[in-house]
Design brief:
ten-stranded mixed β-sheet, globular, 16 helices, six-stranded mixed β-sheet, 25 strands, single chain, 27% strand, alpha/beta, 625 residues
Length: 625
């Protein structure tokens, strides 16, 4: 529980509550099941008639709910809807700072699907944050705004594009300009509504004082394509958001909300238009350049607190480093080895999903510092980082790089057959690979399934064996010498090469132990390009232990869930080099945190048999060969 002192008026309101109830309880909202199991209180708020928890049990305790409508900032006529939660008991004339969250998941009927609510009320999407931070007791308002086309807002969907950027700008300025507002706005979100936080930073709005963004996309293109290769959700994500946009309002929503929520009924072209943009595979098309959040962050300085799982398979750390490099303002970060989770989430056995205590306190302290001028009472690390060993360290920035190296990978050939020849060899050896199930791809950013399939048993080892026999297969490997000391690979690895042939290429990095067990810890795919080409892998923070070997695999796309089209051609690779940023783990400064539970899940899924082969390069903090 947060122990920071509450404003005087909030403390007085809390004393009154205790006197009436005889107990100290945090803000809570009824679940759909609980709401249907009791006689609900169902008063619906307007802009002027506020509603408390006692009048509607979907309103968090300690707050007053009102609804508001205001125009977007692009002159399109789009009308935005917002649910405002003000701290209960604010004296007349008292102004408060505002935490804004804007996205597609705040509809009264449910976040991504109808949730069975029997009466309307504000979304409980960030009830964990409201309760965990004691937000209202600390004098903050919380504003949830529906992006265009979602919930109670009109307009056509525009996934991360200029339309949504105009919505974010309008919401920030509306929150800052209200008579009850101090004019200081912070943004909070996870996944999609973390993306809108990055957009808010990119827009350089003076009223925006801080952004807390958990597990965002750093560039919208990378969620749909990998360097021209479609991902499984290339059409499905559009379908998922079209579905969210067309959810029917609840029967007791007011007439204004109901009319706006049915906007797509009278504008069916909105859904078709939304789907069309996702089919553009060219990253340089204006559709995607207008959504390149990392590039747009150049010169921005809004204080930014981010979280990112390096090994998550949903909103991956692609162009993360570019965004943070382009951002020049104060930063805070939790980065480590988890999946698509929130800072305060816990797994089924009660362990914290990120492994680190104190998310809500630290997030609120960040807002206190930049929205109200209250300096933190705790000396928080600028970046708290969990590496692949499960240990946490404190850093003044991310990444910390002691040496950049360029390692020669030489030349080789592979057959762009989607792994067919490698799987045929497994079958001939009596261990046929199971047919990989292709996911439907119909998911949104918040609810992506586990799409990555484990590599078939023996696949990597079989490819390496065929390579050593002089055969050209679905890929080839290059190995380092065993490391003389522990070395951390951090930042964004890059591979540059010249390829002769057409088709696709997959690039993977493995941590190979002396026992022949190897963990695939980074990967990327791309369409082949004529001439010299360069591919960034995902950002990483992986420690290779002394005695281990770094293996690089170059070849056809034969694992994962990309919707690639193999060319069937033999591709000749020459002049390949691997660019790495290295750090020495021996000088880490430890900070509190436990091993994130997902790390062990990842290790089980991505560990394969791959004995080290003949070495052709050396990885060392002191230089390279």
């Amino acid at each position: 529980m947060n122990r920071r002192r509450a404003p005087g008026w909030a403390a007085l309101a809390l004393v009154t509550t205790l006197a009436l109830t005889g107990a100290l309880t945090g803000p809570a909202v009824a679940s759909p099941a609980a709401a249907s199991a009791q006689t609900p209180t169902t008063v619906v708020a307007t802009a002027t008639d506020g509603v408390t928890h006692e009048q509607n049990d979907r309103v968090p305790k300690g707050s007053v709910w009102t609804q508001h409508y205001f125009p977007s900032s692009d002159g399109s006529g789009t009308e935005l809807h917002g649910d405002l939660l003000m701290p209960e008991g604010v004296p007349a004339g008292q102004k408060v700072p505002v935490i804004l969250s804007i996205g597609p998941y705040f509809g009264h009927m449910g976040q991504t699907n109808p949730e069975g609510w029997t009466h309307t009320g504000p979304s409980n999407r960030f009830q964990d944050f409201i309760e965990g931070s004691d937000l209202f007791a600390h004098g903050y308002a919380f504003l949830m705004v529906d992006l265009r086309g979602f919930g109670g807002s009109t307009g056509c969907l525009d996934w991360g594009g200029p339309g949504e950027q105009a919505d974010v700008k309008a919401a920030i300025n509306w929150a800052a300009s209200q008579p009850w507002s101090t004019g200081a706005v912070g943004m909070y979100g996870k996944s999609y509504d973390a993306v809108t936080g990055l957009i808010g930073n990119d827009l350089k709005q003076s009223a925006l004082k801080a952004v807390v963004a958990g597990e965002p996309l750093w560039d919208m293109y990378q969620y749909i394509y990998s360097n021209g290769v479609p991902r499984p959700n290339v059409t499905g994500t559009a379908n998922a958001y079209n579905g969210i946009a067309t959810m029917a309002p609840l029967s007791d929503d007011d007439g204004h909300y109901q009319a706006n929520a049915r906007y797509e009924d009278d504008h069916p072209g909105c859904l078709t238009e939304n789907s069309a943009g996702y089919r553009i595979s060219d990253q340089n098309d204006p559709f995607w350049t207008s959504r390149d959040l990392a590039k747009m962050a150049q010169g921005t300085d809004t204080p930014l607190f981010v979280t990112q799982g390096f090994i998550e398979n949903n909103t991956k750390p692609e162009e993360m480093q570019e965004y943070l490099t382009n951002h020049t303002g104060p930063e805070r970060g939790w980065v480590g080895q988890w999946d698509h989770v929130r800072g305060g989430d816990r797994v089924s056995d009660g362990r914290l999903a990120m492994g680190r205590e104190g998310w809500y306190d630290e997030a609120l302290s960040f807002y206190d510092q930049y929205l109200t001028g209250v300096q933190p009472s705790v000396d928080y690390p600028t970046y708290s980082v969990e590496d692949s060993t499960g240990h946490w360290r404190a850093q003044d920035t991310w990444p910390v790089v002691e040496r950049d190296v360029t390692l020669p990978l030489g030349r080789g050939s592979y057959l762009d057959d989607g792994g067919a020849s490698a799987r045929a060899s497994l079958a001939a050896a009596g261990t046929p690979a199971p047919k990989a199930a292709q996911p439907s791809g119909n998911w949104d950013m918040e609810n992506a399934p586990a799409t990555e399939q484990p590599a078939p048993k023996g696949l990597a080892k079989g490819i390496a064996k065929r390579q050593q026999a002089g055969e050209v297969g679905s890929s080839f490997f290059v190995w380092s010498q065993p490391l003389a000391q522990d070395v951390r690979l951090t930042a964004t690895p890059n591979i540059a090469l010249t390829a002769k042939g057409e088709g696709n290429i997959m690039l993977k990095l493995y941590d190979v132990g002396p026992d022949g067990k190897a963990v695939m810890f980074d990967e990327q795919v791309s369409l082949l390009k004529s001439g010299r080409m360069s591919v960034d892998l995902k950002a990483t923070d992986w420690t290779l232990a002394a005695g281990h070997v770094l293996a690089v695999e170059i070849g056809s796309i034969q694992t994962g869930s990309w919707r690639d089209t193999p060319s069937g051609q033999t591709v000749k690779v020459s002049g390949a080099v691997l660019r790495l940023s290295l750090d020495d783990p021996s000088d880490d400064v430890a900070t509190q945190g436990d091993r994130s539970p997902y790390l062990d899940t990842y290790l089980r899924q991505y560990t394969v048999d791959l004995p080290a082969g003949p070495a052709s390069f050396t990885v060392t903090l002191g230089g390279h060969i």
